[in-house]
Amino acid sequence: MKVIVCENYEEMSDKGAALIAAEVRQNPEAVLGLATGSSPIGMYSRLVAAYERGELDFSKVKTYNLDEYLPIDPANKNSYCAFMHEHLWDKVNLKPENCHIPNGNIALEDAEAQCAAYDDAIKAAGGIDLQLLGIGRNGHIGFNEPAESLSVGTHPVKLTESTLAANGPLFDDPSEMPRHAVTMGMGSIFSAKKILIIANGKAKHDAIKGLLNGGITTALPASILLLHPDVTLICDKEAYNG
Ligand code: GLP
User: Quick check: CB of 163 below 6 Å from ligand 1?
Assistant: First the structure.
């Protein structure tokens, strides 16, 4: 794993955006795996700015997002679908039909069926060239929460108390936060040709420390990525040093 430690969030965002921009320039038909959360907002704004300056063309790029709450209406401002529209999809020349995210607008019992179709669609697109990941405070990736075993493909999950506590405050009424989500599995993520993980702030220190100094364990789902041949971690000093 290549590790790049930055001064702050701004530098992390600059470096992360530069990596994604380089991928898109080198392969205008790149398939990108995208993430939501506070970590990538700065990166997305830099990609939008590069597009506005005429330096990037997303017209042939395909995107597949990692995860979505379940159940949630895509029009709900807290949905990851709304997040992607706000921060990237509607601000660059991505074609709407090329932007994909698991559908959270279904009942938990119906989620399994769409999950296999999501993985099949990624495979049919040629697989993910570059997967962007944030990391949860407990080391989760997407919504692959610490557990005795981890799922391979896209699947529905019950969110942990740690994740409910971390993300609940983003909802006007935290009790409205869905208790489940749909997420790419570790296998779906691992199949990406390249992986970029970004992390900032002291709250991520334990997860980063565990990732860099611990072994591979399902108790820290991100640690599985230590086995992947092409992973870059870009984090700030606070996430790295605590
Ligand atoms: C969330 C999401 C992840 C995200 C992570 C970190 O719960 N499911 O996809 O990468 O946790 O989020 P943030 O960047 O807001 O810290």
Answer: yes
- Residues 14-23, mean pLDDT to the nearest whole number: 98
Under 8 Å between Cβ of 70 and 101: no
Residue 3 to residue 107: CA distance in whole angstroms: 40
Pairing of strands 31-34, 62-65: parallel
157: nearest Cα among 171, 141, 134: 141
Q: Where are the domains of the chain?
A: 2-241
CATH class of 2-241: alpha beta
The fraction of the chain above a pLDDT of 70, given in percent, is 100
183-201 burial by CB neighbour count: b if 16+ within 10 A, else e? bbbbebbbbbbbbbbbbbe
Instruction: Express each pLDDT in 198-210 by its tens digit.
Output: 999 999 999 999 9
Out of 36, 64, 204, give the residue to mutate to test ligand 1, the one with the largest number of ligand atoms within 8 Å of its CB.
Answer: 36
Q: How many CB atoms lie within 10 A of CB 87?
A: 19
